[in-house]
Amino acid sequence: MADYDTLGSVFAEGAKMAPPNSDVGDVQRGAGRPRDPRIEQAALAAARELLVEVGYARLTVAAVAGRAGTTKAALYRRWPSLPHLVYEAAFPDDLLKDWHLGADLRADLLGIVVGTRDAFTTPVAAAALPGLLAEFSTHPVLHNALLSRFASVFEAIDDRLRDAATAGEVKAEARSEDLLRLMIGAALIGVLLGPETLDDAWAARITDILLEGIRP
Amino acid sequence: MADYDTLGSVFAEGAKMAPPNSDVGDVQRGAGRPRDPRIEQAALAAARELLVEVGYARLTVAAVAGRAGTTKAALYRRWPSLPHLVYEAAFPDDLLKDWHLGADLRADLLGIVVGTRDAFTTPVAAAALPGLLAEFSTHPVLHNALLSRFASVFEAIDDRLRDAATAGEVKAEARSEDLLRLMIGAALIGVLLGPETLDDAWAARITDILLEGIRP
Amino acid sequence: MADYDTLGSVFAEGAKMAPPNSDVGDVQRGAGRPRDPRIEQAALAAARELLVEVGYARLTVAAVAGRAGTTKAALYRRWPSLPHLVYEAAFPDDLLKDWHLGADLRADLLGIVVGTRDAFTTPVAAAALPGLLAEFSTHPVLHNALLSRFASVFEAIDDRLRDAATAGEVKAEARSEDLLRLMIGAALIGVLLGPETLDDAWAARITDILLEGIRP
Amino acid sequence: MADYDTLGSVFAEGAKMAPPNSDVGDVQRGAGRPRDPRIEQAALAAARELLVEVGYARLTVAAVAGRAGTTKAALYRRWPSLPHLVYEAAFPDDLLKDWHLGADLRADLLGIVVGTRDAFTTPVAAAALPGLLAEFSTHPVLHNALLSRFASVFEAIDDRLRDAATAGEVKAEARSEDLLRLMIGAALIGVLLGPETLDDAWAARITDILLEGIRP
DNA sequence: CACTAATCGAGACGGTACGTCGCGTCTTGTG
DNA sequence: CACAAGACGCGACGTACCGTCTCGATTAGTG
């Protein structure tokens, strides 16, 4: 995943249009030298390394290119700007791949809390998150990319909560939106203030508060 | 508060500290031309205006200086860097001045939620917050400034919760830290994702969830 | 002359030096986007204009860049500092291109006096000279550039004087070094104290004094 | 010499006017705290030291004040600007105090050459000269100060040469102006290109060339 | 002996230029 | 086409020095 097409569909703003001979439906594999597939991985790996080493603020395109053994132009051919690259490096597409809901409501909520915490407390993610949040407020494209990625998760939780309401496990008026924001917000604050306190006991306490908070 | 001395105690790195024996005739006190107090206010006001007009990312030291009718050097004499100035401009010391707890636990919690939301949804604060969060991870001084500011609030809520536990209103094991982080995190996420949803109904819902969550 | 390579050989500090084995297929030769040759000429022209308009002391890198339609960074890519640019602008390499010695000793000496005066009394040179002299003592690279430029002239005059000594026109112990310094010094002092007195009669008088001074 | 009054007469531009009670002819020794006479000497000494240590270009008012144990304001009370201070430090008023002409024309000329060389090759003067020359072309006040200082010398040499012409020692049309410029120019060039070559043999050679050059 | 007035230290002031850095784009020659 | 290389315009950075100013604290002479 995380390949050119996926990126293009999320970030491209028209410049990455398929070449004119795409009428036959073959993806733009047309004329010209093909892209070196190693560059993509090398760039993401370099970005991850540098994020941990120097932090988001001191991360530069030239440094990523140098570490990846390529040049700035090759990176700008793949990502519209540095934040896009960082976003993909810190939060790859496969982040949510083995995530699912089950029958036990508390286990499901705990899973979300733990999953969010784990996604945020990765050294790479912890280094990238504050900077990316700042970019989100400036670049709506990035913002939407984040939201659309979590849209399916959001819907799934919404359904799960509705089922729980039907089963009488939670209040009918409980909103998945509120719950999710509380969980993500708690994890985010934890990362910003010091991720060392976000142990499993913390996750259990947060889950219990929220679970009791929406019980009928 | 929010005056020159307070600033010095938070940001200065030793040079501006009053010597411990300053109770006697301290000769150095007030040597040199005193700082023009209007510059400080003008700079903070200019920063607030520009934050709303152009946003954090496009905010420039030169622009703040120009709008304030002074020069970059005068600003660097007062704040180590632009984020420090922005922090003080967006979150002045008197932010928490008329804040207090009462007898009604729900009212107290709601007050915190609403107060945090109001502090974060100010146009100035909303513009500054994402950028400042990114800087916090770079500038530990700023980070500590934020934490120390909320330290007293934290203690007060801690005491309030302990009283409530004694009165049987909440669980004995309820932690003010968890509660506070949930409340602040919810407001923060709200600001980052779209502050238009943070109405009074939202505050009431969040308060109710948390209150029920810690009931015995 | 006065082109990119000559500049490199005079001012560059190793980075731009062609490697000694560059006779074979030197891969690095010409890598990257080539420098825009118009910028070099535009910068020199802008410097010349501004030297006359505002003088050396008020000459700014930003002003030269602005007038040349480029930016400071492009200038710093070509010259280590403003004095280097000014030096090349005021005293280009082709300054001595149509200079030669002949059979008449007095005519030769007069030619040097007049040539030096003309080179120094150009509006551009007159504006640049005092400032450059001050920089010479700070930047030895500039100093050496000046000296090496006159080295060939120096040798030619040395030979000419030796021939004249053989022909019995001048004393055997007459030193071209002394003579040249007297001539250049007289012109320099003239420019510094007021170039309006350096007419052709002045040149004739100076030439006659020096010529008689070294007659046997 | 070199005191306040002399300075005032040379440099002051009206600001240093005597107070209104000076009608009785007493120099402004009126009210107010008198100037600390040690500051003047300390500043000149500090300037001399720093000129040799860091050169003219890196010499700053703050550094001179610091080295002299005083402040910038005290210096600006005595000299209109840094070049004025440097000028007086490098070329004090008593420079020409034991200078005179005699009966031997060659000895007189040699004296001027040697005297100029000695005045220019002092470490302090050699460090200050190029920078001061650059300032001269910008600040006519300084320029005039230099010229007026040498005016008497100039006249004396003029007379001396006229006497020599009457005595048949030199051509009638020989100009002291040309001669003096040649001598000063030679010394100046020598300092700029490397003062180590300006030994006594050099002085003798220069003197002989010029003397022969104006012989009838 | 108080009063006046200039100087002292200290250091902030407005102003201006410096040289550097990073961005995202472009223009070469070479696959 | 992609790629390595590196220059390009743009704009901001944080620093340094200038010469001036405003303090409170001396330090004389004057009334």
TrEMBL record, chains A, B, C, D:
Highest taxon in the source lineage: Bacteria
Annotated organism of origin: Nocardioides humilatus
Name of the protein: TetR/AcrR family transcriptional regulator
Region feature (Disordered): 15-34
Domain HTH tetR-type positions: 37-97
GO molecular function: DNA-binding transcription factor activity; transcription cis-regulatory region binding
SUPFAM superfamilies, A to Z: Homeodomain-like (SSF46689), Tetracyclin repressor-like, C-terminal domain (SSF48498)
Database matches in Pfam families: TetR_C_11, TetR_N
Keywords: DNA-binding, Transcription, Transcription regulation
UniProt DNA-binding region: 60-79
